[in-house]
Design a protein that fits this description.
Layout: H1 2-20, H2 27-50, H3 57-66, H4 73-81, H5 85-92, H6 94-113, H7 125-145, H8 153-164, H9 168-181, H10 189-209
Helix pairs in contact: 2-6, 2-7, 3-4, 4-6, 5-6, 7-10, 8-9, 9-10
């Protein structure tokens, strides 16, 4: 009886080890995941831009500056992210930095190019705020899980999570809300309120689903 229990215990331990074994992403999985994540984010930004809404982080700052500059969103997005690459390189490693740089350029280019394939005669601002925020949050979640980000506040939020075990979503929510509120004199109070709602929804997605130790690939 004891021998049988011992055999069952050994099988249970082996099964637990198999379940908890970490399997990293392959190159194909990384490329596919990063592409899908960039597609989601660019479409989310496009929704927000078409409705005249903003968001947080460097994407929000780039959208804000499109109201004050003749430069495109993609150009501003890349330029605004450049100062943060020293932190990514020093704290997050070369692989993370290279993936992040590629994603930033891809999102900027995709967002600028979407006007060639999509055109809205009308888009409800509430729908744009909610759907754009969900696409942004989902896209960022995919990028995070493939060891990449979209630079700027994303890098800082991931660094704080890795260094101090503070959830990236919470850090991102505080910083994003600050950027949106700073846009008070650029857009109407109604659009500002919807932009804040969108920033909160995006970061709720990250807070709920991007937790340390939950995803180990």
């Amino acid at each position: 009886m004891k021998a049988e229990q011992s055999i069952k215990a050994d099988h249970s331990v082996k099964r637990d080890k198999t379940i908890t074994k970490t399997v990293g992403h392959s190159v194909v999985e990384d490329v596919t995941g990063l592409f899908v994540g960039c597609c989601f984010v660019s479409l989310g930004v496009f929704f927000l831009r078409q409705a005249g809404l903003l968001t947080g982080g460097t994407a929000g700052a780039a959208l804000l500056l499109t109201h004050l500059s003749h430069l495109s969103f993609g150009t501003l997005f890349v330029l605004l992210n450049l100062p943060f690459f020293w932190l990514a390189w020093a704290r997050m490693g070369k692989d993370f930095t290279v993936k992040t740089f590629i994603c930033i350029v891809a999102v900027g280019a995709m967002t600028d190019a979407l006007g060639l394939v999509l055109h809205f005669d009308y888009i409800n601002v509430i729908y744009a705020a909610v759907m754009g925020a969900l696409l942004l949050g989902s896209g960022l979640l995919i990028l995070f899980r493939h060891k990449a980000s979209l630079g700027g506040f994303n890098i800082f939020a991931l660094y704080m999570q890795d260094r101090f075990n503070i959830r990236a979503g919470n850090i991102q929510m505080l910083l994003d809300s600050a950027i949106v509120v700073a846009s008070f004199f650029i857009i109407s109070p109604w659009l500002l309120a919807l932009s804040v709602l969108g920033a909160v929804i995006t970061n709720i997605v990250l807070t709920f689903y991007h937790k340390p130790g939950r995803y180990t690939a």
